[in-house]
Recover the amino acids of this structure.
């Protein structure tokens, strides 16, 4: 029995060590890690002090506070949890032959590259700022659904992207989402990193570049950026930013190479990914509804004040 007890304790210690390691790995480089350590140390010290001084009410309060730690973790580390959900739930847990097609040759990637490179070259030469996200396995519908619907197919020598990103266009602010060879939406707001994220980027880079890297960290999308100041083209993928410049050949090579990394095509997305998207959309609709209610309430108050005057 003693041997079994020792083995059980060793097993529990190993499980606990693995959980702590996974938590630290998820929060690596995060400003929230310092918050977590500080709060945990403070609560444990407070509980020990209250217990040593025989203060039952304070002991109860400290234990009750610790019991609410899961909610605290969700609030503080929402960005880290979102990143993990997008990287893990964006792919099926149990891929099988029925759900995954064979590796494709790459004609679609070459075709998309041939469609985008001339447009990028024109945008670069005219110093027209642009932000383009190319959807791969992880759905970008939760971003495209809140932009301006376009549903226009890219064609050779088409001025579609020039028209969208033209400074006088109402859709030039924000980015576009491309699915296959179709521009799904424009004027989309991409997720921005917090102060602790995208720390390796130069301070000279603007909001488009930071949004591109942030989206490429959270999803497997290939994101293209054209600088409005210099006209240089950059590519963000897997959280890394590659500055291409104005070299057309290198531009085509880097874009095609990034697109080729997603060889396996998932036919249907996992259920958990769709649930995540559904909750995100529900939250956005609730926020918009609350904003509309507040604006209407403000207008009613203004009318009432005018009548009183």
């Amino acid at each position: 029995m003693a041997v079994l007890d020792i083995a059980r304790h060793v097993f529990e210690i190993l499980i606990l060590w693995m959980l702590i390691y996974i938590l630290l790995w998820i929060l690596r480089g995060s400003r929230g890690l310092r918050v977590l350590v500080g709060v945990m140390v403070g609560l444990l010290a407070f509980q020990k002090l209250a217990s040593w001084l025989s203060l039952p009410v304070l002991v109860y309060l400290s234990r009750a506070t610790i019991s609410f730690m899961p909610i605290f973790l969700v609030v503080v580390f929402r960005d880290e949890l979102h990143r993990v959900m997008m990287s893990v739930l964006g792919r099926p847990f149990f891929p099988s032959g029925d759900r995954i097609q064979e590796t494709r040759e790459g004609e679609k990637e070459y075709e998309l590259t041939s469609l985008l490179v001339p447009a990028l070259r024109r945008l670069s030469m005219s110093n027209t700022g642009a932000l383009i996200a190319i959807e791969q396995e992880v759905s970008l519908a939760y971003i495209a659904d809140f932009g301006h619907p376009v549903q226009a197919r890219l064609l050779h020598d088409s001025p579609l992207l020039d028209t969208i990103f033209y400074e006088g266009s109402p859709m030039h602010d924000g980015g576009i989402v491309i699915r296959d060879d179709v521009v799904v939406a424009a004027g989309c707001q991409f997720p921005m990193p917090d102060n602790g994220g995208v720390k390796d980027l130069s301070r000279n880079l603007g909001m488009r570049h930071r949004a591109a890297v942030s989206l490429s960290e959270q999803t497997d999308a290939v994101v293209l950026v054209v600088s409005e100041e210099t006209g240089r083209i950059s590519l963000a993928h897997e959280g890394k930013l590659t500055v291409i410049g104005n070299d057309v050949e290198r531009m085509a090579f880097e874009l095609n190479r990034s697109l080729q990394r997603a060889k396996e095509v998932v036919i249907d997305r996992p259920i958990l990914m769709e649930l995540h998207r559904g909750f995100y959309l529900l939250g956005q609709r609730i926020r918009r509804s609350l904003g509309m209610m507040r604006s209407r309430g403000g207008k009613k108050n203004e009318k009432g004040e005018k009548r009183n005057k």
Notes: The chain has eleven helices and seven strands. The first helix runs from residue 2 to 26. The CA atoms of residues 98 and 267 lie 9 Å apart. The first strand starts at residue 130 and ends at 134.
